[in-house]
Amino acid sequence: MKLLRPIFYAIIFLGSLSVAISDASHTSSWIYYGIATLAAGYFLKSLFSCFINSTEDKLKKTENHVVLYFQRHKVGSIHDVIMFLKEHNCLYDDDLAIKTITDTLRYMRTQGIIQPLTDEINNEINENTVWLSTFEGAEIQKQIINI
After folding, report:
1. What's the pLDDT tens digit per position in 91-132?
2. 66-74: which pairs have CB atoms within 8 A and are 24 or more residues apart?
3. What residues contact 147, with CB distance under 8 A and at least 6 apart?
4. How far apart are CA 109 and CA 107, in angstroms?
């Protein structure tokens, strides 16, 4: 579906270019060349946008990335979640959302949505560490998008 827009602009570009080349009068051909140039620019822009994800798309996919990443690494802290989101360009250092996400994650922990690790699993983990493989049920990406 995303490729329909570049195809549309390519058709406009080729049509305008063919009319401009075949047009005998030079007075109107520059208009067609201008249309062809604009269509070529929009074609390239829409073609590249098909392959580049926006921040919103990255945030929508955050849940899957967090679940896969932390299932592989098994444990992590709230700080790990924030660092993970920064690495994937979903958050920045000066973002007010970092404090809100931290507060949200702590609230989710107190509500029992995400569970702290027990001493039997690993006694080297401090009390701020949470069991992050439960994030799939917590729908963390909806929490982050709401922020």
Report:
1. 666 666 666 666 776 676 676 665 544 444 444 444 444 444
2. 66/132, 66/135, 66/140, 66/141, 67/133, 67/135, 67/136, 70/132, 70/133, 70/135, 71/133, 74/133
3. 97, 100, 101, 104
4. 5
* Domain ranges (residues) in the chain: 4-49, 55-146
Cα separations in angstroms, 63 against 59, 100, 127, 136, 139: 8, 17, 23, 7, 7
pTM given for the model? 0.33
- Which pairs with CB-CB distance under 8 Å and at least 24 residues apart come from 5-8? 5/46, 6/43, 6/46, 6/47, 6/50
The answer to whether the Cα torsion of 91, 74, 63, 143 is positive or negative is negative
